[in-house]
Amino acid sequence: MSDPVRVLGIDPGFGTLGYGIIEARASRVDLVAYGAIKTESGEPIPDRLLKIYDELEAITRKYSPHESAVEELFFFRNVTTAIEVGEARGVILLVLRRLCVPIYEYTPHQVKMAVTGYGKAEKGQIQRTLKAFLGMSETPKPDDAADALAVAWCHISSRRFPGGVRNV
Q: Pick the catalytic residue: 55, 105, 144, 147?
C-alpha cells in the first residue's frame, strides 16, 4: 500500500448507524473521524431513511473515502428490527454506489478476527484493541461507531493480507 487509502467503515443500523473513517499508509493507520447517525423512533420510517441518506451522503462527501466497508447483517430475533436494519442497509449501499465509492462487505466474525484474532471477541475487547491500534486517548463511543471503526480496520487488514475481500 504505497498511496494512502481512506476507508469509510459502516455498522448498519436504523436507530443508530455507526461510521468510522481511517486512513492507511504503508506503515501506519490513522484515525480520521467517527460517530453515529441517529434517528428518532417516533418519526415515520421514510423520514428516518431520508435522514440516514442525507447524513451519510454529507459524511461521504466531506471525507472522500477511497473505499467503503459495510458489515453484513446477521441473524435478528426480532423480524421488525431485521427489516428496518435491512432497509437502512439498502440506503447505505445506495449512497455509496451513487457516490461511486467501492463497497466491500464483511461478516461480524471476519471483523472480530481482523481486530482481535478471535472470532468470538466481545465488544469491550474490540474497543480496547482499536483504541490501542489507532492511538486513541479514549475508547470509541458509541458502540456503533466503535463497530464501524472495526469494520474499516477489517478492510484495511484484508487489503494488506488479501484473501477475504469481497467487493459488491
A: 144
% of residues, the chain, pLDDT over 90:
74
Residue 105 bears catalytic tag:
no
71 is catalytic: yes
Q: Is the pLDDT of residue 27 over 90?
A: no
Is 11 catalytic? The answer is: yes
Task: Report the distance separating Cα 162 and Cα 153, nearest Å.
Answer: 14
Task: Show me where the domains of the chain are located.
Answer: 5-160
How distant is the alpha carbon of residue 42 from its chain centre? 25
Of 71, 84, 105, 147, which one is the catalytic site residue? Answer: 71
Tell me, what's the pLDDT at 163? 54
Query: Residues of 46-70 as b/e, b for ≥16 C-beta within 10 angstroms?
Result: eebbebbbebbbebbeeeebebbbb
Whether this model's pTM surpasses 0.85: yes
As annotated, the binding site for Mg(2+) includes: 11, 71, 144
Pick the CATH number of 5-160 from 3.40.50.720, 3.40.50.740, 3.40.50.2300, 3.30.420.10: 3.30.420.10
Residues 44-90 have pLDDT tens digits of 999 999 999 999 999 999 999 999 999 998 766 778 788 888 999 99
